């Protein structure tokens, strides 16, 4: 990395064309790997349960561990950006993610696999926080739109192709290969990053140790408590949830007194912004409830193969990608809150249609229902994200982006924990119960989005 390129990037003019392409490849590859890791694991959960001699409810912690670690780390990692610098932050995340992928592949038991997934989730949080800002640094001002478009592709394509990719891998190899694939690609991305991405100016920043600990305890105990409910130990579960809520209260109190709080109170005091955050959390809770439970529905209840399961899930993310592009055009003409409400109502209807599948459904009967869910999610996603970013002042776009990630991971984490609970309570009916609860969360998100529109109309008059 030469001094001229580094100075150019620091000035906000991006990198020279050749270096920009290689640097962008490094960042986008890291983002794509973290999103692919989330998309492929769900399909393999039944195989993991069989090979590791674990229960379905316990195996769901392969998903829970990743999501929990990510949501716990997001706020503290965002607070570390100025102290570590974007390049070092992203490199740290990529290193942790790649090493954890290797441990996942060789894990001899479920406990080791879950622990490795926790490390993977922490690495994913680093990548999520630093990725967008690095793209902004790499591309010159007049090409920022192109950079963000590539970033969107790095998120959407793995989500769309993940289930199919996992199904194809599982057709010829055991599930550890879903993690081994990350290792050489992660090493390539890290080497490219170190070679091409310039360092950034770091500032002295006092790390908020009390806030970080309270953040971890609050999210961790609440999610673990919900999962413990599924094991039947109600007393322990209630204690974990209550202590988690107390830690949340202490975190809010501590952050309000902190000179540089991790929580953006100025944004959360805006009703339209806070309702957009709530809408996002509800939608992602519904999404993960479906994504985690559907492989069990297809493979355990309907007796399908992992390949068939992956192919049948694929219509959801594919139609999401198409509907998201359409929603990006519609949001110019129609209020984001209205589009989000319509989208989540459609998603809720699709989930309920999945609950009432025929006893022996044809593939097309499943595929069109999955497409309805995907269209609804796509209609919601783009307008809601746009609303969150445009409601916040331009100077607070970083904080708004951070809350967007927190809402997403918080929803995923809560949804994963609820799967554990509902599988424990519902037995063979667990997948159908998860889809029903997912529909309820999607409907709640539609109501929250409608309330946002009511606030906007009221403010305008």
From TrEMBL:
The species this protein was found in: Alloalcanivorax profundimaris
InterPro entries assigned to the protein according to its UniProt record, in alphabetical order: MFS, MFS_dom, MFS_trans_sf
Lineage of source species: Bacteria, Pseudomonadati, Pseudomonadota, Gammaproteobacteria, Oceanospirillales
Main location: membrane
PANTHER family in the cross-refs: MAJOR FACILITATOR SUPERFAMILY MULTIDRUG TRANSPORTER MFSC
Protein name: Transporter
Stretches that traverse the bilayer: 22-45, 57-77, 89-108, 114-135, 147-171, 177-197, 209-229, 235-253, 273-298, 310-327, 334-356, 362-380, 405-424, 430-451
Ranges for domain Major facilitator superfamily (MFS) profile: 23-457
Membrane disposition: Multi-pass membrane protein
């Amino acid at each position: 990395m030469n001094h001229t390129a580094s100075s150019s990037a620091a000035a906000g003019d991006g990198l020279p064309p050749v270096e920009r392409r290689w640097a962008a490849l490094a960042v986008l590859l890291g983002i794509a790997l973290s999103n692919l890791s989330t998309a492929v694991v769900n399909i393999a959960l039944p195989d993991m349960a069989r090979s590791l001699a674990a229960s379905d409810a316990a195996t769901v912690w392969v998903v829970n561990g990743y999501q929990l670690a990510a949501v716990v780390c997001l706020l503290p990692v965002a607070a570390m950006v100025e102290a570590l610098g974007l390049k070092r932050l992203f490199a740290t995340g990529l290193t942790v993610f790649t090493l954890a992928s290797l441990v996942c592949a060789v894990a001899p038991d479920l406990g080791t696999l879950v622990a490795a997934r926790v490390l993977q989730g922490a690495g994913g949080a680093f990548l999520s926080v630093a990725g967008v800002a690095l793209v902004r640094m790499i591309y010159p001002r007049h090409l920022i739109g192109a950079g963000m478009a590539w970033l969107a592709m790095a998120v959407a394509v793995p989500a769309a192709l993940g289930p199919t990719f996992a199904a194809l891998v599982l057709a010829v190899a055991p599930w550890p290969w879903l993690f081994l694939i990350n290792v050489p690609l992660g090493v390539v991305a890290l080497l490219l990053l170190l070679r091409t991405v310039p360092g950034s100016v770091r500032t002295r920043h006092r790390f908020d140790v009390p806030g970080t600990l309270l953040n971890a305890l609050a999210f961790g105990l609440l999610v673990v408590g919900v999962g413990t409910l599924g094991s039947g130990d109600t007393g322990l579960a209630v204690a974990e949830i209550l202590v988690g809520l107390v830690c949340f209260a202490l975190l809010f109190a501590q952050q309000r007194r902190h000179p540089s709080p991790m929580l953006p109170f100025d944004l959360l005091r805006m009703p339209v912004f806070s309702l957009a955050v709530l809408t996002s959390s509800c939608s992602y809770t519904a999404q993960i409830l479906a994504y985690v439970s559907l492989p069990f529905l297809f493979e355990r209840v309907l007796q399908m193969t992992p390949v068939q399961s992956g192919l049948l899930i694929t219509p959801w993310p594919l139609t999401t990608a198409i509907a998201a592009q359409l929603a990006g055009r519609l949001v110019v003409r129609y209020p984001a809150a209205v589009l989000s409400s319509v989208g989540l109502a459609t998603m809720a209807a699709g989930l309920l249609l999945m609950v009432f599948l025929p006893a022996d459904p044809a593939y097309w009967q499943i595929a069109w229902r999955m497409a309805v869910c995907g269209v609804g999610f796509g209609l919601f996603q783009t307008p809601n994200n746009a609303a969150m970013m445009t409601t916040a002042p331009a100077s607070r776009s970083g904080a708004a982006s951070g809350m967007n990630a927190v809402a997403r991971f918080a929803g995923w984490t809560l949804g994963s924990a609820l799967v554990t609970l509902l599988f424990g309570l519902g037995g063979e009916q667990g997948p159908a119960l998860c889809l029903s609860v997912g529909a309820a969360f999607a409907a709640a998100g539609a109501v929250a989005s409608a309330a946002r529109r009511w606030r906007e109309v009221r403010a305008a008059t």
